[in-house]
DNA sequence: TAGGTCAAACAGCGCC
DNA sequence: GGCGCTGTTTGACCTA
């Protein structure tokens, strides 16, 4: 405060002999002795002091006539409020940042300022507070934004990772399925071939492979001779043809179809189901180069199978 | 001492 | 008309 007081302009023209201490501000003058407001030309009661203000006591009594004269040589210049005045106003601002008329007058009295000065100070103070508040809000929002951005980026990374993982697993699954299909088809083909070898050896049919026509021919002769004993209610009666009929006994003595006698010694129906029937599938379209992998009857089209039984 | 910063003071506008 | 808000001006003060 002393330093501030020592910076008083040397161009002041105010006559210190006219300075008075406003009675209503005497306490404030003691409390804020360094004030040098250029516009404090009247006290709280509106009495015009023409630039002769509350700070007289400090400047005059403690700094002497020279400093005091210097100070008032330039009353038109803007003067900063003293530290004590600002502190007092700050405390008041913390209580209430808006000024009621009575409060304004009272503060002006206490500080030895014009009510308008107090109002302007509050106005500027509110503006500063708002600026700081906006800065705080901005920082807070920016921090929130940064946090959310980081979380979002992490989620994106996680999503990409999971997508890649899912794709890898899907590919592995498809590959595994393919391998399983191949091995199963090979196994089934092998199985079918084994059974064929067992029950329908190629040499049984001689040089001429057994064809559908010859089988059908034998079926017809068999059926014609045994039709009276066919039980259509039998579970082995398939589409009008008893399963036992498929144990086609050749019409003549030359056996073109010979079944293992050990198998025939058992139940004929079972033998048909277990041995003969699978073997018959072997007659299906041998020219098919790429049979389906997962079925023993892969060579048969759906419409081909009944043909085997019902060709006439 | 120039340039930057801060705060006092002001101007203009809208609201009640 | 008084008051608050916003933007601007201006002077005090600081610092490189």
TrEMBL record:
Superkingdom of origin organism: Eukaryota
Keyword Lipoprotein in annotation: no
GO cellular component: nucleus
Principal location listed in the UniProt entry: nucleus
Keyword vocabulary terms for this entry: Coiled coil, DNA-binding, Homeobox, Nucleus, Transcription, Transcription regulation
GO biological-process terms attached to the record: positive regulation of DNA-templated transcription
InterPro entries: HD, HDZip_class_I_plant, Homeobox_CS, Homeodomain-like_sf, HTH_motif, Leu_zip_homeo
Pfam families hit by this protein: HALZ, Homeodomain
UniProt keyword Signal present: no
Localization terms from the record: Nucleus
Residues forming coiled coils: 131-172
DNA-binding region(s), residue ranges: 74-133
Positions of the Homeobox domain: 72-132
GO MF: DNA-binding transcription factor activity, RNA polymerase II-specific; transcription cis-regulatory region binding
Family, as annotated: Belongs to the HD-ZIP homeobox family. Class I subfamily.
Known role: Transcription factor.
Protein name: Homeobox-leucine zipper protein
Lineage of the organism: Eukaryota, Viridiplantae, Streptophyta, Embryophyta, Tracheophyta
């Amino acid at each position: 405060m002393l330093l501030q007081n020592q910076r008083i302009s040397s161009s002041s023209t105010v006559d210190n002999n006219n300075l008075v201490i406003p009675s209503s501000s005497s306490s404030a003058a003691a409390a804020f002795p360094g004030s040098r407001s250029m516009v404090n030309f009247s006290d709280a009661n509106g009495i015009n002091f023409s630039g002769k203000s509350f700070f007289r006591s400090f400047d005059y009594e403690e700094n002497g006539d020279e400093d005091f004269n210097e100070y008032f040589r330039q009353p038109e210049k803007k003067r900063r409020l003293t530290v004590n005045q600002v502190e007092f106003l700050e405390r008041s601002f913390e209580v209430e940042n808006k000024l009621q008329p009575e409060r304004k007058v009272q503060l002006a009295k206490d500080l030895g300022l014009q009510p308008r000065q107090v109002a302007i100070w509050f106005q500027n103070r509110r503006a500063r507070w708002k600026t700081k508040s906006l800065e705080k809000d901005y920082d807070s929002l920016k921090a929130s934004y940064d946090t959310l951005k980081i979380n979002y980026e992490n989620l994106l990374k996680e999503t990409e990772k999971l997508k890649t993982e899912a794709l890898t697993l899907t590919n592995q699954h498809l590959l595994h399925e393919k391998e399983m299909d191949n091995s199963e088809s090979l196994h089934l083909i092998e199985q079918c071939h084994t059974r064929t070898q067992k029950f329908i050896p190629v040499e049984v049919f001689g040089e001429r492979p057994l064809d559908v026509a010859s089988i059908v021919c034998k079926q017809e002769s068999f059926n014609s001779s045994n039709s009276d004993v066919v039980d259509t209610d039998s579970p082995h009666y398939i589409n009008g043809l008893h399963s036992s009929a498929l144990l086609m006994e050749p019409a003549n003595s030359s056996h073109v179809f010979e079944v293992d006698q050990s198998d025939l010694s058992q139940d004929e129906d079972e033998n048909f189901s277990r041995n003969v029937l699978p073997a018959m599938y072997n007659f299906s379209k041998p020219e098919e180069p790429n049979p389906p992998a997962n079925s023993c009857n892969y060579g048969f089209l759906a419409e081909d199978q009944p043909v085997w039984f019902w060709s006439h």
